[in-house]
Amino acid sequence: MPSIDQFKVLKAVVECGSLRLAADSLCKTQPALTHAIRQLESQLGLRLFSREAYRLALTDEGKRIHQLALRTLETHNELLQVATFLAGGNEASVTLAVEASFELAPILPAFEAVQAEFPACEIVIRQEYLTGAVELVQKDLAELCISPVNPALSPGVRLQSQFLTRGEMVNVASPKLLARHGALHSVAQLKDEYQILVQDSGSGTRGLKLGVQSAQRHWYVNNFATKLSLIEQGMGWGRLPLWMIKTALEEGRLLVPELNDFSAREQFGYSLVRRADGAPGPVATRLWQALAGTAG
Known about the structure:
Elements: H1 4-16, H2 19-26, H3 30-44, E1 49-50, E2 57-58, H4 60-87, E3 93-99, H5 108-117, E4 122-128, H6 132-138, E5 144-147, E6 159-172, H7 175-178, E7 195-198, E8 218-221, H8 224-232, E9 238-241, H9 242-250, E10 265-275, H10 282-292
Parallel strand pairs: 3-4, 3-5, 7-8
Antiparallel strand pairs: 1-2, 5-10, 6-9, 6-10
Helix pairs in contact: 1-2, 1-3, 1-4, 2-3, 5-10
Protein name: Glycine cleavage system transcriptional activator
Family: Belongs to the LysR transcriptional regulatory family.
Domain HTH lysR-type: 2-59
């Protein structure tokens, strides 16, 4: 099988245009390079260079092999870089679980900075709902999470947290739905409409129906995009993150019903969370620092 060294010789000869210059660039003798090229041609059963002209030129077959050799060398270099990175005690991947009501845009520069600093580490972002993000940290399935979850809903492992920012959920409905209710002032008047709820991707609210009114019809969905679509079509009502629905509110596609017995807006804080009993690696530590720096 061809070796990496043979591919390096092929690359040098093509780039330099002559065996003499290639030999100088590789600190090898010209006969050594001639032998390497002939051995490579013999192993492949192909003639890589045309030797009829004064200057070495690749044959058609040689051009294709040269392309693949460059790709192989790039992969080989990447392998060596990643191996060096991992041998230095760095993580192969770091997972950040994010509760889906949190807006990612403000923290994207932090991800960009960490990825530039640790390009060999794979950063995984997992969107979860309600207690799901914290639960992944508790189960050691994520190094970090961003979540607004009340600690009482996530008992067990001791956690370390740092406040990041505040968020807001807004109760909305479509003009089509509200038109069915002339003088709307109580949530009880909506009991025959469907309240659209997002399912908890964790187990912290198992057996609980958070924010669901007594005798209220309701549907469960597994993401905010589906919830938004159903609400915009007048098929139900419910709370959505303010950042997600600003445009719909401005354009009048969604309205905020003001009810006497159900708050239109709910504000809460998001925190950056990790296990307090762990020993985070260099990348997880740097990601924590970068995200903490976005607090405000």
